Amino acid sequence: MFVFWLGLSLAGVLLSAFLLVMKVKIYRRTSLLLELSSLCSLVVSGAYALLFSSSIEVQGGVFSIGIVGFISLLFFVTHLVAADSAEDLALCKELAKIRRPLAWIILPTIFWVVSAFGLEYAKNENLFWQGAFFPLYLVACVFYLGLAISIALLSFENYYNRLIARFLMLCSWFMALLFLWTILLKGHASMMSFVLSCAVPQLLFFEVVRENLWGRLFVVLCILFGGLLKCNFWVNLDDFHFFTNMTFASASLVLAGGILFVVLFLGVRFLLSRFFENDEILMGEESGNSDGEVPDGEEKKYYPSFSAPEFKVVRLPVLCGVLAAVAYGYFTSDWVNLAGPFGAYVSCLLVCMQPFMHLVFSKRRKEDRK
Amino acid sequence: MSLFANAVACLLCLLFAFNLCRVRGIFHIALMIFIVVMTSGVYTLFAGNFSNPALEYYPIRMVALTFCVFTTELRENRRRFMVLAQAFWLWIELVGAVSLYQMDLEAPWLRLAAIAEIGLGCCFMVHISKEIEFGLIVLWMAVWMFF
Question: From the candidates B57, B71, B75, B128, which should be mutated to test the interface with A, based on the most A CB atoms within 10 A?
């Protein structure tokens, strides 16, 4: 359960950052939901970690997840404050400028953290998964779970994003291929998980299922449960371990995790509705019929190398981050687990400070002119 | 994998990229990528020896090379996607190299350095002409074949 919620905690923000970097424009509510779900999942995984603190060994990987959680929080808060509803319009504009640079830092950080986690797990915990394929498979699963949970959350908000549903359907084929490759490489894999997370999503081909709220929910819940079984298989290497060892206590724990997530998510969403009274930021108040893609209003402009606005925002912080990572790696000899996330942490902090610095300097300039 | 099989894989990647350039629309592109992944897997299955751990990620390396070649045909945001495709290739190679190193096998560090250098070089390009496109494809093929 801990691994499952940990995966979900990276999934939402990974997907949101990926879509931002690839310039796929989606409504703010979709990306906000994804980022919020990540933070709520992180809290749930933290609760599981506290509950089983005796059996979970605190290593560099855990700290790196914490760093990703902090960066995700920065990403989410930046997104919220950049809303037009806030009073200081200049600050909003400045914060909106750092959204994509933050995504450029977050995306490789998550790849780094998941890969390092997979490699370390395969080396120290379960030699069966040793090899180059497992970390790639982990990242693919995290991405896939992110798509599934976004559809589930949007469904609860009475909203349907066709673009993400299409992505999900396409990704299910790739997941099926990766599953077959796992069988070829390792000899066996979780069949139950394959049926739930790769075969069931093909139901989305039928309009009856795709356009029906309960149909969509059924499919995404199957995918999430399939993901849970997959995590169970990665740890125990037994397809039926989850069911054969199911006791009342473990079933209650599974349920409690889900309930905690829903309560947290709805609670924060309710708080946001109260504090940010803006039509755009309230999530899912309309039953949208669009496919979730926002028309491109930006003027297409060519920028020579190293002169795009995003690069100008990101260059100095990333340089400082790389230096911090090198210094950290040099002094601690930990080049794999924490050097990358630490560098990303420094870079993100510096990127987030830039709008405030700009505002302070611009105010001073205005005062000087007067 | 033998040198000949490696060369055939490289040619297959060029073929995939050529076909990928001709499709339009996200659904068709995704379908094409699915076919690319499947064909790469089947090719690796029949052309290589599965006891070799380096073949675990061979199909995904083929997909990465396909993406790199494909980006030369893009007309918008070409430099961005070129760098992204090479970053993807670099990530796959890095994970593969680290996992091979963990198994006390020889890891292709030189290949990693070569991809990183080409990727960094792409960041500096202003206008990518047809000649530079061709040069890049040749460089990628050389990295694939000789490192």
Answer: B57
Delimit the domains of chain A by residue range: 2-285+307-369
Taking the C-alpha atoms of residue A114 and residue A110, their distance in angstroms, rounded to an integer, is 6
In sequence order, which residues have a C-beta less than 8 Å from that of residue B83 and are 6 or more positions away? B119, B122, B123
**Is-contact B94 B144, C-beta < 8 A?**
no
Place of tokens 């400070």: A353
Q: Nearest CB to A130: which of B38, B76, B102?
A: B102
Residues A17/A106, Cβ–Cβ less than 8 Å: yes
Residue A82 has pLDDT above 80, yes or no: no
Q: Which two tokens stand for residue A167?
A: 């992505």
Q: Out of A115, A170, A177, name the one closest to residue B38 (CB).
A: A177
The answer to whether A305 contacts B79, with C-beta atoms less than 8 Å apart, is yes
Tally Cβ neighbours within 10 Å of residue A24: 15
Residues of B in contact with A304 (CB under 8 A): 126
Mean pLDDT computed over B91-101? 90
| DSSP bridge pairs for A293 | A26
Q: According to DSSP H, which parts of chain A are helical?
A: 2-21, 28-51, 60-81, 89-97, 99-120, 133-156, 162-186, 191-194, 207-210, 213-236, 241-244, 248-275, 309-332, 339-369
- pLDDT tens digits along A15-71: 889 888 887 777 777 788 888 889 999 999 888 888 876 666 656 567 888 888 999
Contacts of A313 (CB under 8 A, 6+ apart): A97, A98, A101, A351, A354
Band the pLDDT of A289: cuts 50, 70, 90: very low
pTM: 0.87
Helices B78-102, A133-156: axis angle to 10 degrees equals 130
Helix axes A99-120, B78-102, angle to 10 degrees: 20
pLDDT for A85 equals: 56
Do the chains contact at A131 and B99, CB–CB below 8 Å? yes
